[in-house]
């Protein structure tokens, strides 16, 4: 019975999951505005008999659906936010914008949230049929893209009582993630000066734009003196106006500071603050430092990741139709030579020569149907994910599953185009089954969770979770005044 029961339920309910995924693709709502997407997911949860609670930790579009009782308590994480400016016609092999400036699911979160929901439905069926104690909680996690929704949820204690958490992410390769990611802070620096006629009375003005430029120059020199893995990005969001004959009284820049550990981000943040304050002193302006959001580094739990990997291998990749493969080929070849980068990165980190050769043997394929070798050492990602904050609260692991053509770049129109395709639908069901299978392995064998917790304790080495988001900081929708 066990996993097969869950997998059959996932297949049985696949049609409603595909509908939900496609509807969320059509909503394409950005961070913390995902009301329609949330309703779609909550409606399915309620129809499937889950107890639904919304507004978790004061985050309007954060929610959970719970089924079962007793331990272990396993969380399944779902995301559903989109990216701004990535509108794209579905099923096209070239960039075709339908609504200029509109949002699009360029990271596949329409699939992410619904596959996780599908896994929870399968697990619920297993708990019902087996009669075993245990609880499954589906977490609807908003604002992953630039909002760190899970960090706000973690700050509110949402994940504190979980025994384990599982999630996944769409991609062009299938693998169990054992790597780490960078913690980050996002901070707005707002400079206030004094306007004046730049020709007639420039001495009366105090330029906020000068202050901003001096700050950026100071940070440029700082980059040499931080840990090599650190990243300091910025975007000038307001230059004070379009008139060069006005001393600009206001300017604003948004910084994203990344490093391998929260403590390193905090140290760099304090140094950037000093540079901003110094720039304000130099120009006799005033700077306001506005903390927007932060997230912790990811601690992938290798014990649970191995369970995900075993289930991915056991299930095997989906079969695709001739039409689906033709579509994948057109997308993949359109990417150019860079389409091989993800494959070559995996191969580079294979310690076994035979495994490396096996990975590289797939070069040139339009759709990767193999499971990458399990790598207990992991690969550091120089990106960030708010899954990191969950991983500091309980043993957490995630898989990547091929849902789009080989070499498809993330955050691209190509991802949006494939978001409603058969490639997407089959990939998300594959992911759902792997997550459900890994969770059921833990319900069946409590020793797995015990080992996962022991690994987490060793990794923490006495450290405890401190949410990087300061008190009083609230989630903000994209474009909300900062």
- H and E order: HHHEEEHEHHEEEHEEHEHHHHHEHHH
Total of DSSP H or I helical runs spanning 4+ residues: 16
Indicate the overall shape: globular
Structural class: alpha/beta
What is the strand content?
15-25%
For the largest beta sheet, what order do the strands appear in spatially?
Answer: 1-2-4-3-5-11-6
- Number of β-strand runs: 11
Largest sheet: 7 strands, mixed
Helix content: 40-55%
The whole-number mean of residue pLDDT values reads 96
Radius of gyration: 23 Å
Gap between N and C termini, in Å? 53 Å
Which residue ranges are poorly predicted, with pLDDT under 50 across at least 5 consecutive positions? none
Overall description:
- With 482 residues, this protein is α/β, with parallel strands linked by helices.
- Helices cover 42% and strands 17% of the residues.
- It has a seven-stranded mixed beta sheet with strand order 1-2-4-3-5-11-6, sandwiched between helices. It has a four-stranded antiparallel beta sheet with strand order 8-9-7-10.
- Strand 1 (51-54) and strand 2 form a beta hairpin.
- Helix 2 runs antiparallel to helix 3, helix 11 packs antiparallel against helix 12 and helix 15 crosses helix 16 (446-460).
- The longest helix is centred in the last third of the chain and has 23 residues, at 422-444.
- It is globular, with a radius of gyration of 23 Å.
- The model has no long low-confidence stretch (mean pLDDT 96).
